Task: structure prediction
Amino acid sequence: MEIRIRLKIPKHLFPRLAGSLVALWLFLPTPSLFRRISARGNGLPEATLPSRTQTLDVVGRKRKYTRQEIETLIRESARKHGLPEDKVLRIAICESKLDPNVISKNRMFWGLYQFALTTWNNTPEGKAKLDRRDPVANITAAHRHMKAHGYGAWPHCKSR
Result:
């Protein structure tokens, strides 16, 4: 899913932008905090928002994961941690429908396994300042928690 936003900016406000392509960073209070805005010489900057399946990797570059890739990551991690593959996959589907960028309605829980910020910050991935929307980090943190503490952190999905 791609969303384009066109902003009208009078040329007299930005005379140096006319005729050149300049990248600006615009802060928006949304799941992906920074949106890249391309200002074109016509005075109508165009913003392209990332698709729902894009996430940021450790160095900030965008990495797209397909639903099949995410399912494979979950199954491999489950095998690595000695967890039942089908059960942890059902929990991820219940929590996020395998969308790594999903955010709860109250904006408190993020990612595949819907981590709260305080919980995330207490995981090794959170302490390493990884994004909760990074599928690999989210899966690893969730599966480590499931192995150590069981499935109680996902009460609505653990029995499905």
